[in-house]
Amino acid sequence: MHKATSVEIKCILCNQKKFKPLFKYNFAGCFCQFVECSNCSLIFANPRPDQEKLEIFYRNSYYDSADIGKWDELRLKGFKERWGLIKRITKIKKGNLLDVGCGFGGFLELVKNDGWNCEGNDLSEIACNFARKNGLRIHQGGLSDINYKPNSFDVVCSWDTIYFLPNPYEELLLINKILRSDGWLALRIKVVPRIFLTNFLFKRLFKFNPGWLYIFNLKTIEDILKKTGYNNIRFFYTSPSKRSDLSLFENSLRAFVYYISKLLFFLKIRILFFSPTVLILAEKK
Ligand SMILES: [Zn+2]
Description:
Elements: E1 6-7, E2 19-27, E3 30-37, E4 43-45, E5 48-49, H1 51-61, H2 68-71, H3 76-90, E6 96-100, H4 106-113, E7 117-122, H5 125-133, E8 137-140, E9 153-159, H6 168-178, E10 179-190, H7 199-205, E11 214-215, H8 218-227, E12 230-237, H9 248-266, E13 277-284
Parallel strand pairs: 6-7, 6-9, 7-8, 9-10
Antiparallel strand pairs: 1-5, 2-3, 3-4, 4-11, 10-13, 12-13
Helix pairs in contact: 3-4
Bound molecules: zinc ion.
């Protein structure tokens, strides 16, 4: 098998090349590591796997092990929570929504049943075919491969995808362009505080996937959103789902962390923010 090569990049947020190493990992036989930018503190993979290897990884293997029937069933509660928040905050009654990285289309089905026009895209052929069978409008490919007209969507959402992208900065700019002038971006990301960035804690509790290229915290995600044309940036807690690969103790620990985080956030102690997942709503500037 052809051995992957790793590539080095500059910080996408500030263009600097000075980093502090955090932890190492292996991707298809090549050495990779996570670093923290010494200038803006963005955390990203550098060196990272080459793009060709990453694309093969996503197109072929990402959903292979997924039990298709259960994939969205496990996520339905979370989808409903997010959709409720989007409607409450944006106050948009009916419109056009795009789901970037829509997977099997479970979220789009919910939106469609609510009377919205919606469509999605995903790299995975398995996921796209499944979603199409359910009557959804789906494009296979990345956002940059599809020519959406500027100002087309009232809401663009992307659940747990932007940290897998080679350049989230470019992606957020693209989304900004296709949003209407008063449109909203809805993101769900894992937010990982610096203290969790050790091999054991991070890989176990945050379900480290070797396709991850960025690890955001509240500061860095806010910085990148401001730079790519968003304002009115709002953070929300989303409830943790139980994970079958963790023990009762680990699941309880996650739930405990969630409630503590929620309380701290309520008290505006954002420095101690350590909930693993967060929903972000941001308006186009
Ligand atoms: Zn930087």
